[in-house]
Amino acid sequence: MGIIQAIILGIVQGLSEFLPISSSAHLVIASNLYKVFVGDDLSNNSPEEIFLDIMLHLGTLIAVLIFFRKDILNIFKAIFNGLKTKDYKNEDCKIGLYIILGTIVTILIAFPLHHVAEDLVFSPVKVGILLIFTGIFLLSSEFYSKKIETKSENMDLKTSIIIAAAQGLAALPGFSRSGLTIASGLFSKKTRFAAARYSFLLSIPIILGASMFYPLLKINIKELAQFNWTAIIIGTVSSALVGYICIKYFLKFVSKYSLGFFGYYCIIAGILTSAFFMFISMGL
């Protein structure tokens, strides 16, 4: 794995993790396109590439932690005060408790799907199909949201569980984590900004857990010394920088404009991806 490949994937991850277009799908697409152009076997995913994928997600996690550092600090303070006073009515305290519950719900749904998710890495055609479904879901949520006159900025228990379930399903490459969670928030009569903010905060425990525990379970420690750490570090930094910029401007965008553009993008990208790799697999 080279530095150029790591930078490209870092930029792709930084952009697509927070835009509702499926970062996992775009990593699969970008990685497989790179293999097509350099003549590598599409069915081969080295431990180094798997580890890079984890580190790229860690890069976007760093971006979330830095951008929402004040929100995260307020949530921790509110939970601590809630435990001390036995009063959990503070909005930040509720968000913190919802994130804890939502993380459990996400794990219960995502863990049984992890074998399917790993297999999809080698099937960009199927990933493209799931990307189409993401686009349809986004467009449907926008259509529904426009009919709702009153939308809430505050999260509630029912909505937090629905969004967490959507995040669990997004373990499958092609289902956009931010897309499914934000769209679920719109279906639950929340504003785009409220849904996007909660979506990003909810991602923190899951990305952190995957970054810490997956390498311990799946990566041979002896193999780590053989990895191209220069490429991995540069890719991770690229992911963090692009991710931070993306969060900043996407939150401004989502407050004012429809997500319909991303819905159409997912549908078109999904069709083109499935068609392209279908032709490649047929030797055309």
Task: Output the number of helix runs.
Answer: 13
Strand-residue proportion: under 5%
Give the quaternary arrangement of the chains: single chain
Distance between the termini: 27 Å
Which overall shape is indicated by the principal axes computed on the Cα atoms? globular
- In the residues, how many domains can be counted? 1
Biggest β-sheet, characterized?
none
Q: Give the radius of gyration.
A: 19 Å
Helix-strand sequence? HHHHHHHHHHHHH
Average pLDDT level: 89
Strand elements, count: 0
Q: Helix share of residues?
A: over 70%
Uncertain spans:
none
Structural class comes to mainly alpha
Structure explained in plain terms:
The chain is an all-alpha fold and 284 residues long. It has one domain. Helices cover 79% and strands 0% of the residues. The protein starts with a helix and ends with a helix.
List the helices and strands and how they pair.
Blueprint: H1 3-16, H2 23-38, H3 47-67, H4 69-85, H5 91-110, H6 114-120, H7 124-146, H8 157-169, H9 177-187, H10 192-218, H11 221-224, H12 229-256, H13 260-281
Features:
13 helices; single chain; globular; 284 residues; mainly alpha
Briefly characterize the structure.
By secondary structure, the chain is an all-alpha fold. It has 13 helices and no strands.
